[in-house]
Sequence to fold (447 residues):
Amino acid sequence: MNKHLKIAILGAGESGVGSAVLATKQGYDVLLSDKGSIKEKYKNVLLQYNIKFEENTHDEAWILTANEVIKSPGISDQAPLILKLQAQGTPIISEIEFAARYTNATLIGITGTNGKTTTTLLTYHILTKAGLNVGLAGNIGKSFALQVAENNFDYYVLELSSFQLDGMYKVRLNIAVLLNITPDHLDRYNYELQNYVDSKFRIIQNQTAADYFIYCYDDALLMPQFVKFNTAAKLLPFSLAESFAEGAYIENENLIINQNHNIFSMSIHDLALQGKHNQYNSMAAGLSARVLEVRKEIIRESLEDFVNVEHRLEFVAKVHGIEFINDSKATNVNSTWYALESMNNPVVWIVGGQDKGNDYSMLMNLVKDKVKAIVCLGKDNSKIHKAFKGSIALIEDASSAEEAVKKAYRLGKKGDIVLLSPACASFDLFENYEDRGHQFKQAVRSL
Fold:
């Protein structure tokens, strides 16, 4: 037991509260501290386990004497208290690092700038359908630490953000999946792209020859990094352009997984998730399942009947022949590129919000090819107007989801698609991307 070890947990969200429960069960002297207010549902958990906590303040004297600190991924490394802890050499780790110490389960970790939520859920769907005793955690679902404390899963599928990876040091992932790397969150990485790339590659640290690294062979930022990052893990690439003796690829409109010289094949037209980006996601999830020796029939069924996450290319309704799709989770340009790429009918595109330094030029060819009108949903839409005014004749502004939906509906006709894919954060007009998506769906249903 660890009764003489003090552990401070910063941030009382899902990961922090889960970490506090696990640390308490492991016998640590625990303080959960949040500079803001703590939600009632989390307070109830803390009271249930008799965990010391504080809100709207930090007891720095206590925290600075802790043996170890677990930091919420949302707290910046440049926060004053974090800098003080770093200066005195206090170990600062993530919930994932902490929880992994207390489980012998097989760990499947999935990261990437785009597609990681979908791929994580799809992998979990396959493994659950195969009858495995599996937990879903990381950047999605219930806290990994809470599940380690309260459940006894044999497998965990973990969605890992770069911020979570930054706090991981000794975790060994049995299967590591890296979907893609495009510039994102650069404000947290001193606006140095390589720092962000390095963060993503932490997913392979500590892997051994008994482990697997599944990665996108087509990714221009990812592939050159093999010179810098060595791994003993078995390499399993996936690609739309190349074929492999070991890996996954598309050939003659079939998705093929060749793992351990055992071939699985199915038509890409039978995949529940359509579009090239989802072919990548399906290959990554399928490879993970084959590594775990899930039967081919189960993989096929799962890839055919999977229902995607809310707010990610989510069908909402068809109104007078116009299809409405909610892709509110697309908070960067690359995500929106994938969304537009998968559209097969003329698009009225709802875009905008809090710009993160977006470069819209990479969307230009797709917009010219697929978009008939744009509705800007944000407080300041000048950058979008400037980017597309020479290419799209119809560009209108809206300051609410209801207004945007009404304008898009008026601009569309039977056979068109109204696509909410903002390419921006939501905080100028909404609480978060979920709120934006919910308001969009409500507005569609009110037409």
